[in-house]
User: What shape does this take?
Amino acid sequence: MDIYKIQKEIDAIISSSNTTDTKLQEICDTLENQISYYDWVGFYFKNGNKEELKLAQYTGEETEHTIIPFGKGICGQVAVSNQNFVVQDVSEQDNYISCGWKVKSEIVIPIFVDGENVGQIDIDSHTANTFTDSDEDLLEYICKKVATIL
Assistant: This one.
């Protein structure tokens, strides 16, 4: 993974004249195409005033988890904790919502706008023990960039 190259691609997407929805979809597609072990990439955002997340743009297999209550699953936990959550082996998590039998690991990074957790990027991998500090750094960078267009 060439983080610098991917960051440049993300910068170009963010600075383009496309709509926010198109930019978010392009980010999903870029990450899934550029990083071999990113098998599902998506954004969840707070659903209005409700204590739940709503699926926005994503790439990968369809998911039935289009609404996730705060506190439920990895994404729901991040909505409450405001902290990154890296799960190297989803089978070891009690509060995990299965998105498919192929998913072995997951990383979720919150997106903050003016100090408020407004959403997150969620990555699923079919490979266990795959995420590193580099993944976390890259995704934090992307979330900061995404925050500028929300």
In short: The longest strand covers residues 116-125. The mean pLDDT is 95.
